[in-house]
Amino acid sequence: MTDLTSLTLAEARKGLADKTFTSLELTDAHLSAIEAARVLNAFVMETPEQARDMAKAVDEKIAKGDAGPLAGIPLGIKDLFATKGVRTTACSKILGNFVPTYESTITSQLWRDGAVMLGKLNNDEFAMGSANETSCFGPVGNPWRREGSNTTLVPGGSSGGSASAVAALLCMGATATDTGGSIRQPAAFTATVGIKPTYGRCSRWGIVAFASSLDQAGPIARSVRDAAMLLRSMAGHDPKDTTSVDIAVPDYEAAIGKSVKGMKIGIPKEYRLDGMPAEIEKLWSEGAAWLKAAGAELVEVSLPHTKYALPAYYIVAPAEASSNLARYDGVRYGLREQAKNITELYENTRAEGFGAEVRRRVMIGTYVLSAGYYDAYYLRAQKVRTLIKKDFEDCFAKGVDAILTPATPSAAFGIGEKGGADPVEMYLNDIFTVTVNMAGLPGIAVPAGKDAQGLPLGLQLIGRPFEEETLFSLGEVIEQAAGRFTPARWW
Amino acid sequence: MSTATHKLLKGATGDWEVVIGMEIHAQVTSKSKLFSGASTAFGGEPNSQVSLVDAAMPGMLPVINEECVRQAVRTGLGLNAQINLRSVFDRKNYFYPDLPQGYQISQYKSPVVGEGEVIVDLDGGRSVSIGIERLHLEQDPGKMLHDRSPSLSYIDFNRCGVALMEIVSKPDIRDAEQAKAYVTKLRSIVRYLGTCDGDMEKGSLRADVNVSVRKPGAPLGTRCEIKNMNSITFIGQAIEYEARRQIEILEDGGQIEQETRRFDPSKGETRSMRSKEEAHDYRYFPDPDLLPLEFSQEFVDELKAELPELPDQKKTRFVADLGLSAYDASVLVAERESAVFYETVLDKLGNRARDGKMAANWVINELFGRLNKEGRDITGSPVSAEQLSGIIDLIGDGTISGKIAKDLFEIVWQEGGDPRALVESRGMKQVTDLSAIEKVVDDIIAANPDKAAQVKDKPQSLGWFVGQVMKASGGKANPQSVNDLLKSKLGV
């Protein structure tokens, strides 16, 4: 038998349907891979027993011809998703050994459709980070290394565990979340496909909140088609999340291979940063050329408020986070430190439970919402947000179907290399992705090439609200042109 | 409407005027909480009515309970207030163990209800208009239990997340009497509407009272807020005390510090809780988990069309249709249950136009008087509305006299039974048979020739004869017939 872990999700689906192999075999193959790849630290909780039980149950269903669209497919789940009976921590000490009594809407939809859970994936603490270095379980290794180097690189963040596990063939796909680039940036760093759908496309119910108005879940997968298959199960209206939108979920897979002829692709001039590496420039031009060759029309567009996006994001996101994280107070669940009175209980618990980056953002968020500063920071940032949104609306109003940009300003970097002295250095990783969250639009990152050191680079496509299908069609054009990339196994 | 002259307080340096504004927290009557499906029933086992949302478990999201929105709109309509078709929920951030989210979901800049007005009745037929600044929806916190352990505090989250309406008045209230009347009226309105049970003992309705003093005509003084008052009597006492306290400080050359105070009913005084410096910075911002609350004018119009008759409207109708005095009408409508009782009596009356006013007198004087004497309320009245209307019918159609009716009322109160049947079985019917009465009249005149002779000179002594005849007939003779007969026989 060929190595079952090297199949794409679409290939595995065919094998399962043809009864070439069982879900249990497929699941076991991945469980072995996970065991052999512990050095990557991608999983923070392995659930082999549960995985085998789910696989056996789904095999019975497949035998009866009663299989869902993801029947038998083993997946990894970002530790931000509440999983019933399985420890969920958001990779923060403050949640301790928290075991939810409930299942997030998205994961329950995946199980409904037959998927199998392999375990919980590492991420930046409360999804705050761009390198997966803030996790209380330690950093995640990127399966990719620079050519001729043994330096372990970061997989990006915050969905670093998801990206690393998918790239290293430890799971066939993974759930992820994206508040400012946390799906797309790690996808770009690991040569995987990641899509952040339109805000409201997926339910946020049961996902540990970072910044409510920006958070949106999506998949990280091995191919554009795989991502489309996963998103179809993850998306949908949920009455338990009033910000989720009641629009029918299309068959995203049907968009794969659809002609992009005549589509208008915007190239935003403001994304051409000073000092941008030549490799990124080249990649961007190549991507544009591939789309043109497929029949799309390229137009230069302007998104004039782009430069204000990152500063505004680092006001809005921490503001919401400071409030969202207030519930972790040591009173009802999770970590509780000893104290003489209630104020000390809060102080000791939160000082001990939150890592440095989370504390920093809670402080920033508290500050920008304070009396006397609210108007100057939070209110102003919201106005900027409106302008950013309008930039995109104006662009789409001119007939642009999607916007092509680089996914990240660089390839993956070494653990501990960035942000040590200046956190802004780390924040700049999200320069191309945060605008999309600020505007609530869908964005996909697709692997498009490698840099001189052999590290993968990705391109981003930004679409109109709820037009994820366009992104899948265009993404597949890039995927076909660029080819797929698999890291050489070193672990 | 007569304008009320309010009470000024005398100080060593002259008169002082008290300025009062109130924030009333009224628990919304609804089956489930403002943002979760958990029950709002009072008195459940601690923490038996707590959903994952109420406990602020990770990843939980609030979903607005539309019934609570309807209740807020109904209340707004009852306060003659502006209904805002778009409002916003904000987070009020502070740490406290009874607040699991670490923030209270409230409405800060854009409340669901804007400005309105309440007409408050005062003694002596005076009334005053108190402006409503706003009404907004927010979550009630849980309850801390400090008496279960010497070293630990316990928390009951059953109340946590129950919807509250915070009704903010303008600083239009000028003395304790007005303040008490305002709370009474507001309580009455929400109870008529069925939007809050108004039970102050259970904490369903509580008030924060802002008090400041000034020389009449001077700018507003610095205010102190007395928190969490759950008795109308205490509100009055607290205002009296607090105003005096502030006047004393000012007259001694001191300054009032803006602060939050607590009223101690056992000592009858207010005490400082925290100063302005210790006040929280709540860091309000729009709750990103909730979309703005939007509804159409049709939604409001439908609720308006279904609104029950409110005390003011009822009072006007009682005066106009039944000829009640404004005072009697306001007594009847003050409590919803009283008004319901009175209207049930009216509905059962044989001749409502003739006896409606008499029924009001009976409800107010006989029934309320008797209930007060025994410390019972209208819902526990031994005499039902049907029985009382039966008694009034008997008076109205001349079957019994008013005096006999009082005896009958007493029998019904003590023993129950159908009034008409009781009158029959106990022979309490009024005697209208003229020949029977005439015989009694003749007997009395014959037995008292001296007095009969005097009547022509002293017509007022006719009353003595009436009394004698009524006494001899056991009170059953028709008084009018007795009077007429005596007059003709004695030639007055």
Automatic annotation (TrEMBL), chain A:
Allows the formation of correctly charged Gln-tRNA(Gln) through the transamidation of misacylated Glu-tRNA(Gln) in organisms which lack glutaminyl-tRNA synthetase. The reaction takes place in the presence of glutamine and ATP through an activated gamma-phospho-Glu-tRNA(Gln). Keywords: ATP-binding, Ligase, Nucleotide-binding, Protein biosynthesis, Transferase. It comes from the Bacteria. Heterotrimer of A, B and C subunits. This is Glutamyl-tRNA(Gln) amidotransferase subunit A. Residues 25-471 form the Amidase domain. Transmembrane segments: none annotated. Its EC number is 6.3.5.7. Belongs to the amidase family. GatA subfamily. The active site is at residues 78, 158, 182. GO terms for cellular component: glutamyl-tRNA(Gln) amidotransferase complex. Pfam families: Amidase (PF01425). It catalyses: L-glutamyl-tRNA(Gln) + L-glutamine + ATP + H2O = L-glutaminyl-tRNA(Gln) + L-glutamate + ADP + phosphate + H(+). SUPFAM superfamilies: Amidase signature (AS) enzymes. InterPro entries: Amidase, Amidase_CS, Amidase_dom, AS_sf, GatA. GO terms for molecular function: ATP binding; glutaminyl-tRNA synthase (glutamine-hydrolyzing) activity; transferase activity. HAMAP family: GatA.
UniProtKB/TrEMBL annotation, chain B:
Pfam families: GatB_N, GatB_Yqey. The keyword Repeat does not apply. PROSITE patterns: GATB. GO terms for molecular function: asparaginyl-tRNA synthase (glutamine-hydrolyzing) activity; ATP binding; glutaminyl-tRNA synthase (glutamine-hydrolyzing) activity; transferase activity. InterPro entries: Asn/Gln-tRNA_amidoTrfase_suB/E, Asn/Gln-tRNA_Trfase_suB/E_cat, Asn/Gln_amidotransferase, Asn/Gln_tRNA_amidoTrase-B-like, GatB, GatB_C_1, GatB_Yqey_C_2, Gln-tRNA_amidoTrfase_suB_CS. Its EC number is 6.3.5.-. Residues 340-490 form the Asn/Gln amidotransferase domain. Keywords: ATP-binding, Ligase, Nucleotide-binding, Protein biosynthesis, Transferase. GO terms for biological process: glutaminyl-tRNAGln biosynthesis via transamidation; translation. It is an enzyme of class 6 (ligase). It comes from the Bacteria. It catalyses: L-glutamyl-tRNA(Gln) + L-glutamine + ATP + H2O = L-glutaminyl-tRNA(Gln) + L-glutamate + ADP + phosphate + H(+); L-aspartyl-tRNA(Asn) + L-glutamine + ATP + H2O = L-asparaginyl-tRNA(Asn) + L-glutamate + ADP + phosphate + 2 H(+). Belongs to the GatB/GatE family. GatB subfamily. Allows the formation of correctly charged Asn-tRNA(Asn) or Gln-tRNA(Gln) through the transamidation of misacylated Asp-tRNA(Asn) or Glu-tRNA(Gln) in organisms which lack either or both of asparaginyl-tRNA or glutaminyl-tRNA synthetases. The reaction takes place in the presence of glutamine and ATP through an activated phospho-Asp-tRNA(Asn) or phospho-Glu-tRNA(Gln). HAMAP family: GatB. Heterotrimer of A, B and C subunits. This is Aspartyl/glutamyl-tRNA(Asn/Gln) amidotransferase subunit B. It comes from Bradyrhizobium shewense. The lineage of its organism: Bacteria, Pseudomonadati, Pseudomonadota, Alphaproteobacteria, Hyphomicrobiales.
